[in-house]
Amino acid sequence: MSVISINANNFESEVCCSEVPVLVDFYAGWCTPCRMIYPILEDISDELIGSVKVVRVNVCEESELAGYYNILNVPTMMVFRDGKVTDRIIGATGKRQIMEILTT
To answer: Is-catalytic flag, 17?
Structure first.
């Protein structure tokens, strides 16, 4: 499974109604750290297929959604479980830290 791009139209169904935890990456195309972590997110998506969903939201295209979740810096990653935010990572980080949050 690869990383899924989502928007305000499918955020509810893909994230809030998901039966598995969801890692949401709020990013911008111009953001170098965002581009650096994308391969890590792809790896995580492949490793945790079926147990975690990894999605991306472009904050430049989805500014209302970014505002709703108070995204002030990119990249910002949020973990949703049962439709609620349980963890937040601001800034680029390594695979190990992301995996620890997803698997605990």
So the answer is: no
Query: pLDDT tens digits for the chain (104 residues)?
Result: 689 999 999 999 999 999 999 999 999 999 999 999 999 999 999 999 999 999 999 999 999 999 999 999 999 999 999 999 999 999 999 999 999 999 87
Q: How far is CA 66 from CA 38, 58, 94, 99, in A?
A: 18, 8, 23, 23
**Tokens, residue 16:** 């809030």
CA 69/CA 1 separation, integer angstroms: 25
User: What are the chain's domains?
Assistant: 4-103 (3.40.30.10)
Look at the chain and count its residues.
Answer: 104
16 part of the active site: no
Contact indicator for 75, 25 with CB cutoff of 8 Å: yes
Residues 62 and 5 sit within 8 Å (Cβ to Cβ): no
Q: Are strands 53-58 and 84-90 parallel, antiparallel or unpaired?
A: unpaired
